C-alpha cells in the first residue's frame, strides 16, 4: 500500500495527497547551429524577419592588420561590442562592431586572392591592412582607472546577462613592508 491508500484506509481524505499543479518544463536553448546563428544575428528586432547573412564563412583573410596599441580581448555575448585593454592596462576601450559590409569598399578593386598579406609593395594591400580595423570597429567609450597605481586584469572580464555592463578585475601592487602577515 502506498501513502495515499494508507491515509484513505485510516479514514483520511485521498484528495490531500493528489497534486493538482502541473509540472513546468524548462525550455532549453536550441543546440542547432542554424537556430543559434539566427538568434545572435546583429541588428534584428523580435518582430522583424530573420534572414541569414551572406558571409558566414570568410572568403578573404587579412593578416598583419594595423590596430590601435591595445590588447583586444573579446566580443560581448550579443556580438555588438569588442572590449580591449590599453597597452598600459590602465583603461578599458569599448569598440562597436560595424559589420562586414562596413569594410566592403576596401575590397572593391581586390582580385580573387583569398589572402591579403604584407607583400612589401604597399599599394592596395597596405591600404586594406591599415584601414580595415577602423572600418570594422568604431571606438565608443574609453573608461580610465581613477588610480594610476591600479592595473586592469585583461584575463578577468565578465559581461552581465543583458550585455549592458562588463565587470573587470584589477590589481594593485602592495609593497612588501605593507603586506599583512
TrEMBL record:
Transmembrane segments: none annotated. GO terms for biological process: positive regulation of proteasomal ubiquitin-dependent protein catabolic process; protein ubiquitination. GO terms for molecular function: ubiquitin protein ligase binding; ubiquitin-like ligase-substrate adaptor activity. InterPro entries: De-etiolated_protein_1_Det1. GO terms for cellular component: cullin-RING ubiquitin ligase complex; nucleus. This is DET1 homolog. It comes from Culex pipiens. The lineage of its organism: Eukaryota, Metazoa, Ecdysozoa, Arthropoda, Hexapoda.
Amino acid at each position: 500500500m502506498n501513502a495515499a491508500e494508507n491515509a484513505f484506509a485510516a479514514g483520511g481524505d485521498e484528495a490531500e495527497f493528489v497534486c493538482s499543479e502541473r509540472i513546468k518544463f524548462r525550455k532549453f536553448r536550441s543546440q542547432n547551429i542554424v537556430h543559434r546563428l539566427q538568434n545572435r544575428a546583429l541588428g534584428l528586432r523580435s518582430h522583424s524577419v530573420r534572414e541569414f547573412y551572406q558571409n558566414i564563412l570568410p572568403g578573404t583573410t587579412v593578416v598583419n592588420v594595423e590596430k590601435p596599441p591595445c590588447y583586444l580581448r573579446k566580443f560581448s555575448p550579443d556580438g555588438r561590442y569588442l572590449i580591449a585593454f590599453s597597452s598600459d592596462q590602465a583603461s578599458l576601450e569599448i569598440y562597436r562592431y560595424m559589420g562586414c559590409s562596413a569594410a566592403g569598399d576596401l575590397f572593391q578593386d581586390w582580385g580573387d586572392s583569398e589572402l591579403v598579406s604584407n607583400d612589401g609593395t604597399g599599394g592596395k594591400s597596405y591600404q586594406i591592412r591599415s584601414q580595415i580595423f577602423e572600418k570594422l570597429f568604431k571606438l565608443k567609450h574609453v573608461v580610465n582607472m581613477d588610480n594610476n597605481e591600479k592595473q586592469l586584469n585583461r584575463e578577468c572580464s565578465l559581461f552581465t546577462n543583458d550585455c549592458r555592463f562588463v565587470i573587470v578585475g584589477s590589481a594593485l601592487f602592495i609593497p612588501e613592508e605593507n603586506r599583512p602577515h
